[in-house]
Design a protein that fits this description.
Length: about 100
């Protein structure tokens, strides 16, 4: 096991949804570390992941407090990362697709 994940290995972080924000319009090539550093402007990021595959261009970030997550949405929605304006919004769990 070891480590905190931080987006490596494709693991999904289980966290209170009030601590988690959704990131959209990520530029190709943006990795979790760059996402984490950018999102740290709004508060202490405890976990970040830039998704790949079918979810490429999106990501998720978990903050230490719900206040930091709310601040990130207000402060960083429309901010530029990797040359593109990103979208930052509340995390909503998508229902599982039925095969």
């Amino acid at each position: 096991m070891g480590g905190k994940g931080k987006g490596k290995g494709g693991g999904r972080m289980r966290a209170d949804p009030s601590l988690k924000v959704w990131i959209g319009n990520l530029a190709a090539g943006v990795e979790w570390k760059a996402l984490q550093e950018h999102m740290n402007q709004a508060g202490k990021v405890s976990w970040a992941e830039a998704f790949s595959g079918k979810s490429a261009g999106t990501g998720a970030v978990v903050y230490s407090t719900a206040e930091e997550a709310t601040n990130a949405i207000t402060m960083l929605n429309g901010s530029v990362l990797g040359g593109q304006a990103i979208m930052v919004d509340v995390w909503t769990k998508q229902p599982a697709a039925t095969p």
